[in-house]
Structure formats: structure tokens, C-alpha cells
Amino acid sequence: MITRCxxxxxxxxxxxSDIYPKSRSLFREYGIFEDKYDNMEGFSLQMKKLPAREAxxxxxxxxxxxxxxxxFIISFxxxxxxxxxxxxxxxxxxxxxxxxxxxxxxxxxxxxRRISVGYINGLDSKYVSTIIKLVERCxxxxxxxxxxxxxxTRLKKFIQMYSDFMTCSHLDKELRNKKIEEWxxxxxxxxxxxxxxxxxxxxxxxxxxFVLFACAHDPYLTREEVDNIWDAYFPWICGLHAxxxxxxxxxxxxxxxxxLAFYYKNLKMxxxxxxxxxxxxLESCNKLKYPEFHRTAVKMIIxxxxxxxxxxxxxxxxxxTNIMKKSGSAARFYYNLCKLLRLSGKF
Length: 347
Hints:
- The protein is mainly α and 347 residues long.
- 67% of the residues lie in helices and 0% in strands.
- It starts with 7 loop residues before the first helix and ends with a helix.
């Protein structure tokens, strides 16, 4: 069976014209965030601005059900951001409590699990009901996937790593670095040929969750393809996503204390690391079933972040210019599209 693969400018334009408006509309349909909750208002506005901005492209993965995939992506991302919002409001950074909150991400992809958030004492009922609704929306989608049995083990493993890292990231500064170092020791495997810092970096992006969900639509999916997707996205494409996110938010990530940029000695080293991850990400796409789709996704991620005005503040300007020069003509075309979208207020 031959499945058509949309890629290049056509894929990007389809994402902009179809996915972004659908994602906004779908989020409004959720009806779970009300402005009457003052402490949720800022979060609600953040999500309404453009849900599924980076991940939305995976709703156009060859052979997927677009509406179901977009529903899963937005629901999962909203659980993640809702937990982040709750954690930011917790004064006493209780590692056990934060870890239990992040179990909701596991609940979302494993219908056999008990929904954890309903058993957390003292949590505001509006948060509990919101997360439960979102977990159920995710579960409604995963049970329909023909090849979900081939991705569930990898999916749960990565979500566990991601959740553990995010739990560490929310702890007080005095404890955070120690816990992240311990986290790295637990998950680092020297045989991968990459550094512990790169494992930490790759674990900070949830893109692998969405591409595994998307590929599980394929009834002819093989374990080899799942392994290849894992190897491409972890660490390379997920790592690139996390590096770029932290690059443009260097002064605005968990109070400027937990930015991945701080693992590198200077901006030039960080620039070189981003360039290295771009090269490895594009190279790793060659082994995938739809290489052009994944290459387009990589270049779109570059364009999304480097079109952010913050990427050109101060010394970042030189690094951003150098990275764009090395990213190829397609990435520069997508970059110009993203700049136009930002000027029009759509980003």
C-alpha cells in the first residue's frame, strides 16, 4: 500500500493554513479553561495563542487521521503545560507531589493505568477535573491506533524520562542541579556515543511522543521503523528542539536557572552545538520511512525559533545569523514565512 507523503513548502503551507487554525478552534471547543479562574487566565491565554505550534506538523504525517492526531497532540501538550502551571504555583517544591502530577502524562498514553491526579490530596478540584478530561481525550485516541502495541513500550520509556527530568527542573535551585545530575547518571548510556548533557537536552522535548503516536496509524508499521524513529528523534531532533527553545528563551526558563544553555561554556559553543544537532537531525532522517517529511519538520522547527525576535537580541544575533546560513535555503524560506506570520500576529 502506497501512502502519499506531503513534504517541503507544500507541507509547511498546509500546516500554516490548515493545522494552526484547526488547533485554535479545537482548543476553544475544549471549554475547560475559564477566565473566571484568575490564576488560570495567563495559562489559558498562552495556550489559546497557538496550541500545537511545533507539534502540529505531525497531524499531517502520512496516513494519519488528522483530527484525531491533532486532538491527541493538543490534549497531551495541555496536560503538560497545565502541570507546569500548577508546579509554578507550588511554594514548597515537594518532589513527590510534582512527580505524582507528572504521572498524568503516563496515564494519557496507557489506558490500563489508574488516573493518578484524582488521588492527589489537596489539589484544587478545577485542576483535577481539567487533567482528567484531557487524559481521557488522549486515551480515546490511542485505543484506535492499529499499531499502538509496537510503540507503547518506547512511548512509556520516553515519557518516564521526560517526566523525571521535568520533575527535577521544578525543584528549588539548591536541589535542582544535584537532582538533574543524578537523573543523568540514571539514564546515561556511554554506548550511545553522546554526552550526558546531550541526553539531558534530548529529554526536554516531547516531540518523540507525537511522532510515535502518528506512525502508530500505519497498520504495516515495523519494529525496525519504530527503532529508527527513536534513534532519529532521541537524541537528535528532540535535542535540536530543546536547544533552540532554550536559545530563544535564555532569560525566561524557570526563572533563568534551568536553561540548557548553561551547560555550555559560551555562546559560540552553544551555537556550534545547535549546528551539530541540525546536521545530525537531517542525517538521521535518511533512515526513516518518510525522510522528506521529517527533514521538513526539522527545518520548520529551526524557522519557528530563529524567526522569534528574541533570537536576535544582543549577542544572539550573530549566532542566529550563522545558524540560519548553515541551515539551507529551505529553512530560510520557512523562516521568512514565519516572520510574516509573526508580523501578522498569528504567532
